[in-house]
């Protein structure tokens, strides 16, 4: 969604699943995992499909905080993509040429050094999506500007 905004100046319906996922994660952060200072360390939204046991005011606060998180992350994504538009375009060109890129290929296309400091060794037996998920869980990160 942020990439569409940066590249094309519009947001299309292609981001529907992304929006569903980000909404679910932000609501979980606030309403299940206590990751909002405003709401505090409470579990307001049960994960078993039951109705929330909270007042309408508290539920509205969960929605407000989830909206704040989504808005802040979206603004950050647009800023990072805008600041690194040349790298984004280089990755797009490489994808058009090769169809897929592994991690090393993505770094190379963007012209970024691939730092392995503090990261676990690459596991080649997993599919690429699993490699990226495990890197995030195990403390890996993308380079900062």
Mean pLDDT: 83
Radius of gyration: 19 Å
Q: Quickly give the structural class.
A: mainly alpha
Oligomer: single chain
- State the helicity in percent bands: 55-70%
Count all strands and give the number.
0
Q: How many helices?
A: 6
In what range is the share of β-strand residues? under 5%
Shape: elongated
Poorly predicted tracts of residues: 123-145
N-to-C order of helices and strands: HHHHHH
Largest sheet: none
Could you characterize what this model shows?
- The protein is an all-alpha fold.
- It has helices at 2-8, 16-31, 56-83, 85-98, 103-110, 128-137.
Summary, kept brief:
The chain is mostly helical.
Task: Give me some keywords for this one.
about 140 residues; 6 helices; elongated
Which SSEs are present, and which pair or pack?
Layout lengths: L1 H7 L7 H16 L24 H28 L1 H14 L4 H8 L17 H10 L8
Helix pairs in contact: 1-3, 2-3, 4-5
